[in-house]
Amino acid sequence: MSQLSPASAQTALPAMRDDQLAIAEAIERSWRRCMVKGVDEQAPAHDQIITAQELSQRLEKNRLLLTHAEPEMLTLSGQIAHTRSLVILTDSDGVILRTMGEGVEQGDIRASLLPGASWSEEHRGTNAIGTALVERAPISVQGAEHFMAYHHSLSCSAVPIFAANNQLVATLDVSNDLNQPQQHTLALVKMAAQMVENRLFHATAQGEIGVHFHARAEFIGTLWEGLALFDDDGQLRAINRSGQFQFGLPLDEDVLANRRVPFADVFDESWAAFRQRCQGSDLLFPLQLRNGARLFARTSLQNTARARPVVVQARESAASLEMLDTGDPQLKLAISQVKQVLNRDIPLLVLGDTGAGKELFSRAIHDASNRRERPFVAVNCAALPEGLIEAELFGYEEGAYTGAKRKGNHGKIQQADGGTLFLDEIGDMPLSLQARLLRVLQERCVTPLGSSKSIPVNFMLISATNQKLKDKVAAGEFRSDLYYRINGLALQLPALRQRHDLQRLISLILQVEQSPHTEINSEVMALFARHPWPGNVRQLHNVLRTAIALADGGEISLLHLTQDFLEELQAAGQAAGNDQPPRPALTLKAQSDAAITAAMQQHAGNVSAVARQLGMSRNTLYRRLKALALS
Ligand SMILES: Nc1ncnc2c1ncn2[C@@H]1O[C@H](COP(=O)(O)OP(=O)(O)OP(=O)(O)O)[C@@H](O)[C@H]1O
């Protein structure tokens, strides 16, 4: 076990060194590397794209990563929807695996931001993805900081993602045109990358007893807690990166490879005494490292990865039908209708605006059904590339199509056998596929591409859409026979602005975010109550998640809302005109700027004191001060 450093054990917050300075130095190092290697500054933007076959091999190799990254990419893409950005996931070589969002406008660069394009530093010079991979650190590269002239119109922020053994497995990046708003982008990418890393850790790490720890009690249960998993005998089996940082372990090697690390090598206590002390309790207790540093800790019982059933799920179910029933009458009606028809083989059609919670609701239905032990397989009919959707749904036989896995593949329909098939955005399914889907639903059999054998399947069908399917039927864009086949019972979810349970919904979200005690001040609550929420519950969830992080465990106030959301609130207030209560004399952004300026004066420019008073992190404060030109 390497020497534990008391300094790093005191905190898991980023080192005190200024982020901006570290980034500038990293960019300089990268430029030197590019010059030494003779990277061509004028190379065209799209000359490093791998073949479709190589891409499908890489997608296959990174299946676990994709499963855990996609939900977080979706959330991130929602958080920054106003910036016309592209959210990008690459593998460890910098090859793009998946993108989400609108993306940049320039044609040439667009082509180089498609799956299969390489953004390694060797191929594309200094850029956020390639440089984050070499530096093994988050980085934001703006405009002319890019080595190649072609990329000077881009703004990119990338964060490396590590597997449990400290192996660098991916980067998560957000790229957009330089003229789009960039505030908070790197911070949001960091949060999303951390979520992916945590998901990967939980999916792969083994160990029976989890010790969650941090030098600051309020960080336990958050994204940044240290987590060490021990087996029954007190041997360390896995530790996340925050934990390694706190222990002072190296972050660039597999710290547990060929090494036994007993509990007492790390903590100043025997395993037996520790077990005795924390038995049966999930309360926080003090714990001391061997080097004397004091921590807070909590224990949990883990399911080992081996014991977990392999279930094809894009993300874990977050709520039961009972939890979702937060008091809104229309939602209550939908829930009681579901309960009446549950387990009767009636296809359900869930209707509602985007972000209203259709998928969450559908997962809760699956969990309430007698199919809950079987897979819930979600297919987003709008997100699948047209050429792949057939293979994804119906599967394919060995060698059936170029780039296919040699052994063939079960389609989603077959994977859902015994469980639930969730067809999201069904209104976007191409007409040609609608006919094949109808046949599967009628015959309850699926025939993989390139096969003549049909395979019986049995699943509960839940479809969802935010479109007016009846209008699509009338316009000839959706088959009427399929419409009636999927619509055994239609369940309408209310838009957030129509709901009467905002307060309880917020409490539920705070609970989901493991921050049940976070307070929201009355000014913010009043603004929330009259906002029309175009992005529905997804938007509310994103706003709260970001605010919880920015508030650092304190009360959420205007200061913890992002600038773009403040602008959206302001614009919605203005659009609502006279029916709205009088608007504040200052804009919301101006109010929060004024609070920062006043606090800076009060504390004579002491940034730490101001950050403490306003309940925001120093990094956020630095960014805001920079925008205000006060630093
Ligand atoms: N009742 C709820 N409680 C907590 N969070 C919720 C709730 N409903 C929705 N959400 C949040 O909103 C997000 C979006 O929900 P979901 O994916 O179910 O919406 P959707 O209607 O299927 O959206 P889309 O039409 O865009 O596919 C969820 O990931 C979750 O963050």
From TrEMBL:
Keywords, in A-Z order: ATP-binding, DNA-binding, Nucleotide-binding, Transcription, Transcription regulation
Pfam families the UniProt entry points to: AAA_lid_14, GAF, HTH_8, Sigma54_activat
Domain Sigma-54 factor interaction per the UniProt entry, residue ranges: 324-549
InterPro entries listed in its UniProt record: AAA+_ATPase, AAA_lid_NorR, GAF, GAF-like_dom_sf, Homeodomain-like_sf, HTH_Fis, P-loop_NTPase, Sigma_54_int
Coiled coil: none
Top-rank taxon, per record: Bacteria
ATP-binding found in the keyword field: yes
Protein name as annotated: Sigma-54-dependent Fis family transcriptional regulator
Phylogenetic placement of the source organism: Bacteria, Pseudomonadati, Pseudomonadota, Betaproteobacteria, Nitrosomonadales
